[in-house]
Write a structure and sequence with these properties.
Distance between the termini: 133 Å
Strand order of the largest sheet: 1-2-3
Subunit structure: V-ATPase is a heteromultimeric enzyme made up of two complexes: the ATP-hydrolytic V1 complex and the proton translocation V0 complex.
Keywords: Coiled coil, Hydrogen ion transport, Ion transport, Transport
Largest sheet: 3 strands, antiparallel
Shape: rod-shaped
Order of helices and strands: EHEEEEHH
Number of helices: 3
Protein name: V-type proton ATPase subunit G
Family: Belongs to the V-ATPase G subunit family.
Strand content: 5-15%
Helix content: 55-70%
Structural class: alpha+beta
Radius of gyration: 54 Å
Number of strands: 5
Pfam family, one: V-ATPase_G
Number of domains: 2
Length: 194
């Protein structure tokens, strides 16, 4: 609610006879703004309702407010009716505030729920991929273990063959080694041509 001070309504086009009596002592004009941008100027973008306390005319007068889109007539009302209107507007504002608060709470709740759902989905996806990796690793490690076991068996078989061959000819090999070490046949080197 804004008190606009003493305003001569004739500057807005009001021809109400009661205002002629109050020249120079025009009563204060009280404006109830429906939106923050609403005022009694010609640059307004939304309508205002005015209450003129000394005017007892309940008929609409010629007072209009200029807006960018249209001319809006202003109706003079009594103070009891105006108080009820103000109370209605205040109640509507409180109700709107409650609705906005509930919407904010709902949005906050939905954001938290969405985060929780996303975390659950991420954990489920991670568990699924870990299980797939373990399964893949087990399958491929199994193949590697089998190849490793086959290679070990093959190596053991070759080692056994070599040991068997060594045992078979062990006496002959020892004899040949001892003979090469103990039976030395010295040979004179041939001189190179000088």
């Amino acid at each position: 609610m804004t008190d606009c001070g003493a305003v001569d309504p004739r500057q807005f086009g009001c021809n109400c006879a009661k205002w002629d009596r109050h020249l120079g002592t025009a009563p204060a004009v009280t404006t109830i703004d429906l939106e923050p941008a609403i005022t009694l100027t010609q640059e307004t973008s939304a309508a205002s309702f005015a209450y003129f306390p000394t005017c007892s005319t309940y008929q609409p007068c010629a007072l209009t407010l200029s807006t960018q889109s249209e001319q809006l007539p202003v109706t003079h009302h009594g103070s009891a009716q105006n108080s009820a209107g103000i109370q209605t507007l205040l109640d509507a504002e409180r109700e709107a505030s409650k609705i906005v608060q509930k919407a904010r709470e709902y949005r906050t709740k939905r954001v938290k729920e969405s985060r929780d759902e996303a975390k659950k989905e991420i954990e489920a996806y991670r568990a699924k991929k870990e299980e797939e990796f373990k399964k893949f690793e087990a399958e491929h490690t199994q193949g590697n273990k089998q190849a490793e076991e086959e290679a070990n068996k093959e190596a053991e078989a070759r080692i056994k063959e070599i040991k068997d061959a060594g045992k078979k000819n062990q006496d002959k090999v020892v004899k040949d080694l001892l003979k090469a070490v103990f039976e030395v046949h010295p040979v004179a080197p041939t001189q190179a041509a000088a």
